[in-house]
């Protein structure tokens, strides 16, 4: 892909993340093109359908969260790193859930999520599980808590809040983190 083509694709994906997070299923590809500063033809040259754009946007967002999770989790204090990661993911949760809610449900017959979204989600969960295990090994997180529990809590917080609800979300995250710590 030519450099300007790759730059346009990236602009489209950044714009799509914002537009889909704000408008959900009602988001239009015309608005994505407008915000990206490209023509609608450029959007469809990169993504044949709106669903392809949604899937690419969701996969890209999960990849960004995974990279952030790995970066944070590698901190020297496993407990502090896990708390920082949980807080970071909780703040990103409303956008993540808006994007994931636009995807078709995963079905056992092989249809549903695209391979790129499935791979990105698996990598994200592996990074989250790794951070949790490090915190548990350091005695900073309850040993009975699972990665699925953490994902459930993050989804619940994301569905209960909207982007920008800083103080309320921050307090709720603090309460959840207190509950995840090993009681003394």
TrEMBL record:
Q: Where is the signal peptide?
A: none
DNA-binding region, residues: 28-47
Which GO-annotated molecular functions does the record name? DNA-binding transcription factor activity; transcription cis-regulatory region binding
One Pfam family assigned to this protein is: TetR_C_43
What keywords would UniProt list here? DNA-binding, Transcription, Transcription regulation
Presence of the UniProt keyword Transcription in the record: yes
InterPro entries this protein is in?
A: Homeodomain-like_sf, HTH-type_TetR-like_transc_reg, HTH_TetR, Tet_transcr_reg_TetR-rel_C_sf, TetR_SbtR-like_C
| HTH tetR-type domain segment(s) | 6-65
Domain of life, per the record? Bacteria
Under PANTHER family, the record lists: HTH-TYPE TRANSCRIPTIONAL REGULATOR BETI, HTH-TYPE TRANSCRIPTIONAL REGULATOR RUTR
User: What name does this protein carry?
Assistant: TetR family transcriptional regulator
Which species is listed as the source? Streptomyces griseoaurantiacus M045
